[in-house]
Amino acid sequence: MSQPESAAMPPTDEPGPSPTSHVELTSPEPPTQPLVKSYSPPKADALTFPTQEAFLESLEPISIEEVNDNNRRCPICWKAYGEKPDPGFDNTEMPVKLRCGHIFGDKCLASTFGLPETVRHSLKPLSFDGASAGCLLGSKLEAWLRTSAAVPEQHVQKLEDMLLAADGDKLFGEYWWIILQGMIALLQQL
User: Fold this and answer.
1) Residue 74 burial by CB count (10 A; 0-12/13-18/19+): exposed, middle or buried?
2) N- or C-end of the chain: fewer Cβ atoms within 10 A?
3) Angle (CA) 89 95 101, round 5°
4) DSSP H or E segment with residue 21
């Protein structure tokens, strides 16, 4: 078997590619900079609104006649400006102009950029008497514990010890402590 001509050639001092110049002999160095620049949100400038309310207050109502014939629909919901509302809804869109000159429907912008209404919930202690929700929760937990092999008895005992040793009402709060006491009572019956 004969060697190729390039392998049989003696090395020369002339500049140029050597017969092995196409072979990479070392492993490449890992990149020193990340390949993808991480995201950073745009910075506020003089044109940035300080609040959502300020943005909504800046919307300029315009008449439908001022809108080009080809653009007389809200680009968000596609409802024609001034069209009667759908039954049971207050969704008649009227055109408003942003300070950049774009035109949208007032209801769509209000629902997209408006603040949600505050909803308050009052918590009540859970009762474990009779046919209460606490009693139902406890019975379901008890049934699960009786049929589940996933809760070995030593884990149940550790939970009981931990909860009973703690200052429960201070640690868990009055509402959760009542629930946990009911659960402990059910676990002790098992």
Assistant:
1) buried
2) N
3) 145
4) none
Q: For the chain, how many residues are written? A: 190
Per-residue pLDDT of the chain (190 residues; tens, 9 = 90+): 555 554 555 555 555 555 555 555 565 666 666 667 788 888 888 888 888 889 999 999 999 999 999 999 999 999 999 999 889 888 899 999 999 999 999 999 998 888 887 878 777 776 777 777 777 777 777 676 666 655 566 666 666 666 666 565 666 666 677 777 777 676 666 5
* Of 65, 95, 66, the residue nearest 79 (C-alpha): 95
Q: What's the alpha-carbon Rg for the chain, to the nearest Å?
A: 36
Pick the CATH number of 52-113 from 3.30.40, 3.40.91, 3.30.1120, 1.10.3470: 3.30.40
Euclidean distance between CA atoms 138 and 127, whole angstroms: 10
Q: What is the 3-state secondary structure (H, E, C) of 25-84?
A: CCCCCCCCCCCCCCCCCCCCCCCCCCCHHHHHHHCEECCHHHCCHHHCECCCCCCECCCC
In 3D space, the residue among 28, 7, 26, 29 whose CA is nearest the CA of residue 18 turns out to be 7
